[in-house]
Amino acid sequence: MTDKELRKLRRQDLLELLVEQSREATRFQSERDGKQAELSKILESYERLKGKLDEKDALIEKLKGRLDEKDALMEADKLEAEETLTRLKAKLDEKDVLLEKLKKRLDQKDEKLEQLEAEVEKAHSHKWKEMDECDFTSEIIAKIKTLF
């Protein structure tokens, strides 16, 4: 409305216009208050969610730290286990070498024993022949029978 049109209006029309504007202002004010309350709730909710998110982030960082510690411990344990395994393999290799040496010595002793047994058998056979030739065997058998 222009100034000219406004001046032509009657007082009652002007009052109605003012009342209408007042109602509109009140309605806009209540809408604004509702929107303001809604905005406050949204901001409050946002702050609450942001706080929870910050707590979760802190918890995640804490858990990451613990996980890193566990990883470091596991790596240390792994290295220690590998070192122990290497040492045990070396000892096992030493034992294998020692076992081979002992087997070799045992084989040599078995050969020597077989040789000695062959020599003893040969000596016995030779002695029995001598005793047979000297007729000692019948005397020895007779003495043995008298003992039993």
Q: What is the number of helical segments per DSSP (H or I, 4+ residues)?
A: 3
What kind of sheet is the major sheet? Answer: none
The first-to-last residue Cα distance is: 159 Å
Q: Give the C-alpha Rg.
A: 58 Å
What level of helicity do the residues show? over 70%
Mean pLDDT, all residues: 89
The helix-and-strand class reads mainly alpha
Shape call: rod-shaped
Strand portion: under 5%
Order of helices and strands: HHH
How many E-type strands?
A: 0
Low-confidence blocks of residues: none
Characterization of the model:
The chain is mostly helical. It has helices at 3-8, 11-134, 136-147. The longest helix has 124 residues, at 11-134. The radius of gyration is 58 Å and the shape is rod-shaped. The relative contact order is 0.02.
Helices and strands in order, then pairings?
Blueprint: H1 3-8, H2 11-134, H3 136-147
Features:
148 residues; mainly alpha; 3 helices; rod-shaped
Task: Write a brief structural summary.
By secondary structure, this protein is mainly α. Helix content is 96%, strand content 0%.
